[in-house]
Amino acid sequence: MKDKKTKPPGFLFWLIRQIALQGEEHSLSGDIEEDYYYYAEKRGRFYAYIMCWSQVFRSFFSFSKYYFYGSTGMIKSYFKIAFRNIKRNKMYSLLNMLGLAVGMACSILILLYLQYEFSFDRYHKNADNIYRVARELHPGHSHGGKTKAASTPVQLKDALIAECAEVKNGVRIVSRSNRLLVYRNKSYLEDNIIFADPDFFNFFSFQLMKGDPNIVLKDPASIVLSEDMAEKYFGNEDPVGKVINFNNAKDVVVTGIMKNVPANSHFKMNFTVPLVNVIDQNSSYSWGNNMVLTYISLREGADPGELEDKFPSLFKKHYREDENSTDRTYVNHFTQPLTKIHMYSDLDGELSNNNDIRTVLIIASIAFLILIIACINYMNLATARSVQRSREVGVRKVVGAQRKQLIRQFFSEAAVFTFLALVLSGVLVILVLPFFNNFVDRELSLSLIKNARFLLSVSAVTAVVILFAGSYPALFISSFKPVVVLRGSLSGKSKGSVLRNILVVFQFSISIMLIISTFVVKDQLSFLRNTDVGYTKDQVVIINLRDRNVSRNLEAVKTELKRSPDVIAAGSSSFLPYGRFSQTQPNFPGKPEDFENFDVYVGRVDHDYVDLYDIKLADGRNFSRDFPSDKQAAFLFNESLANRLGWDPAVGKEYMHWGRKKGKVVGVMKDFHFHTLHRGIEPMYLFFEEGMNFYYLSVKIKGTNIPGTMEYLQEKMRGFSPNYPFEYSFFDEVFDRAYRTEIRMEKIFSVFAYIAIFVACLGLFGLASFTAEQKTKEIGVRKVLGAGASNIIILLSKEFTKWVLFANLIAWPASYFIMNMWLRNFAFRTNISIDLFLLASGIALFIALLTVSTQSVKAARTDPVKSLKYE
Amino acid sequence: MNLLTKYEEILLISIYKLGDEAYGARLKRYIFEVTGKDWNYGNLYCTLDQLVKKDYISKTAGDPTPERGGRSKHFFRLTVSGVKILNESMKMNYALWDGLMELAPGKR
To answer: CA A251 to CA A823: how far, in whole Å?
Structure first.
């Protein structure tokens, strides 16, 4: 009769057990099974399957209704009344909905953003098992201010695969930029080049449109282009098999085309070349030579912690075996999961600028706060109207409504509201998305919402809003006692105003805090821009020197450039201001054994650099053409270095750079900020060396005809280097790049401050108009007794300004505390002056008064006759 | 004066008519046969629950049967007050519908 195969699916029954009434789960399950056989006999298994699922699905809503409302009948009426109420108070409803919509739109955007950020690198098939090996640096050996580095020894990958059972496979990567690629008449200077082991495309899931992943990187003279690069160099031609000249050194054959790397990847490359082109297989590298990035994949179920435990012995063994390795104390190595690199990793040698989880958390919490403000708005407006509703509630209770039913009614209203607000927020999100993308520097698109997790989060947010915003009115209004209410003793004074006012205070505290924070950040930024850095940076253009021919020929270049009267000076350097300096330890003949090492920063300059930037000397002289010995080795210390070494005077003392360059200190520079103002002024020296490559040419120009001067510079530079693009930055741009985080922070805070104030004022507007309406009779009487318009306005405004001022009491200390903590990031910071606080509060107060005044003016102008007529 | 909702009324009548066969799936099928309306299980069980709460019907557990995968059914019977209210409802309906055949639009 019934064999096991024709039984209905078990999952169906689990679902039934979840939704059925208590005690009836078995019964219902049995019913469904009975139905299944019935349908199966009638029209076959598939028909039965479909029918049963549709039965369960349709029952779901009925059961839910019953759960929430205890009856199946009343819900329609609740929704009808909710809509009627909304229609009746169109303005309040609209205000309320707008506030909720803004809050929800913020949350949705943030959810989109979070989802995207956490999705980085997850498209790789084996993503959960891929890790990167990285190392901690010795204290005192930090690189560029960071204490950990991503670079690892060349032999590490093979050693790990051979010696650790957990490691299944590995790939090494080296990233390079600034290579000239030439195909026929197309030549471009390219960045984003990756050199990788041959099984790179098997290890990661970068899709190859053309070419077999097993062989594309086998031949050393091969290259894989991204889609965009293929089009750039070859247009419609098929690139495979064609030959490109790489870096003026080698010809490589295009063996494959790769789909563009997805935007949510922690590294993106345009070109992939076999690793052997930078790592010579034949020469041996010491284990102290950290040249590559090592990515490994672990076997299923392997524990990265256990692998990390094996590191100390593994490394120590190889250090000892390695003859070239100096006897160094071991540094800790660790693994990083691939999927965590984008959000959490900030090491020296990262392939690109990763995000910072702290910034993300700050943004998320602010969006959350704004949502809370919006919910508070709803609560306030709903309870402010409680007097209107009180009569309704009284009547309902008299005809037999229980408090439970009333609570359900008000939650239904909150639900209707929230869903309408959700629709409105959807529209807002669509409108604002392009600006948001600009703001966070990503390309988020609406297609991202098409996944279960996101929709679930949005539903969760909606549910929370309904519960949170609806709770206070539901519980509060439903508690009215019919006798009290119908007697009319409630009218005239709104009940619950104390709590409402506290909520207003809370809203405005948050808004004021955001305004103050914005001001402080703005202030600090202008401090950073305007503080005396110890050198002159106006009217300076910095040209990137990529062509070795140019950087070897700099004297001629400088002379040529200076032919124009618009060019005042030119000087070259190995570093960019605010940029990375090489680091080393001090070294000089006669250095004692027990010398306490410290970090020193080093830069290379030519004769003209110091004068161009107007760097002042405390002692001695600049490098000079009059002293040919400078060309061999001469040093300029900064004061901090001289003081740290305890050399007084420093001029004339002997010093060694890297143990091989011996020379004398020819001058001591007054301290200047060569790093960003996050850091104090550290010991530093400059040295001169001819025949070395410089990377940057600083040109000081007259500000009178900047476009013309730039054209002149471009022409001249192209003359010296026709193949290389003319790349330059104005000094301000360099500043902006260095302080990118702070500039972004300013933008973030100001946008959020605008939104928070907007939402808070929406609420205030609603409350004010409501209060004005409440007091129409009172105002009418006062007017009759001779009050002027201004008296009325003051009367109405007094109440609210009190609370806004009160909000300051909370906002001031909180923002002071938070901003102080943020400012500690900077070695040099501005003082948080009281002016900022006063200004912020003034603005908040002004806007609040403006909001309230529109209503109070309207109230003050109403004809007393009208308002008193109805008694 | 307590009026039955239409759902409750239909269900009470069906339970009365089905007698010993008045359990979930059977009721649902019966209602569909007679009224042509396809109730969903949620509606059915929730209304049953309401009727039980109002003490118009009583619930008894039956024996497990293999057709239902070894699960038992709940049988429903009208209580005394259930029969009473159904009688009242029937009388009221007869009184109202008395003399009316097919209603013609527009008349009266």
So the answer is: 52
